[in-house]
Amino acid sequence: MSKVLLKVADLHAFYGESHILHGINFEIREGELVTLLGRNGAGRTTTLRAILGLTGKRTGSVQIEGVETIEMPTNKIARLGLGYCPEERGIFSTLSCEENLMLPPKVGPGGMSVEEIYEMFPNLKERRNSPGTRLSGGEQQMLAMARILRSGAKVLLLDEITEGLAPVIVQTLGRVIRALKDKGFTIILVEQNFRFAAPLADRHYVIEHGQIVATVNKDELAEKTAMLNEFLGV
Fold first, then answer.
1. What is the full DSSP assignment across the chain?
2. Which residue has the higher pLDDT, 202 or 1?
3. Torsion of CA 208, 54, 169, 93, to 10 degrees
4. Which domain holds residue 23?
5. pLDDT over 70, % of the chain
6. How many domains, in total, are found in the chain?
7. What is each CA distance from 119 to 37, 77, 144, in whole angstroms?
8. Per residue in 206-225, is it b (16+ CB within 10 Å) or e — as a string?
9. pTM of the full predicted structure?
């Protein structure tokens, strides 16, 4: 079996006095894609942010390739090979598409070249000189993903990448994620669109009230669909 890249154990996270995560436990092996599913407010995004040390206080254990990071600052955690694509995308409106792409620092060896990225995202090549504000929502999402591919990150944390996008763009992002998985990237996907996530993932973790309440492997989807519908309210 491939090695464990990320291991989360008894992870608690707080925003001020608010206790959001109540003992999250999961792991992801090299080359796997897992989803964090759940209703809005369940703690899915907070889990990604807590892995990176972007919440307030956090306790428990977050190991990246065996390195304990619970006391590390975010910049050092990222340099262990994590790339975060937040829901709000964070595109700099005054910079061109290509300037946005070149902005993030390297966090590890083996990042994709600009040419490889443009091959994966032809829209970005066409719009490379356009200001960030002129990009469509779909193009901004592609750019947000493309930026972390340049950085050399091995583990991609993708937060609600399909939200509000047209079906044709969602299909494009699905093809891109499959291609990234084929290239050996390890991916954690927070996703509301279960139809998008289901065929991509090796495993689904369902989060409710800051805890993982169910784990569903891809070969169990058919028999556990009713349970998932109940948890997700779809």
1. -PPEEEEEEEEEEEETTEEEEEEEEEEEETT-EEEEE--TTSSHHHHHHHHTT-SSSEEEEEEETTEE-TTS-HHHHHTTTEEEE-TT----TTSBHHHHHH-SPP-SS-PPPHHHHHHH-HHHHHTTTSBGGGS-HHHHHHHHHHHHHHTT-SEEEEESTTTT--HHHHHHHHHHHHHHHHTT-EEEEE-S-HHHHTTT-SEEEEEETTEEEEEEEGGGHHHHHHHHHHHHT-
2. 202
3. 150
4. 4-232
5. 100
6. 1
7. 30, 29, 16
8. bbbebebebebeeeeeeebe
9. 0.92
| Beta strand pairing call for 211-217 and 203-208 | antiparallel
Find the CATH number of the domain harbouring 60. 3.40.50.300
pLDDT at residue 204, as a whole number:
95
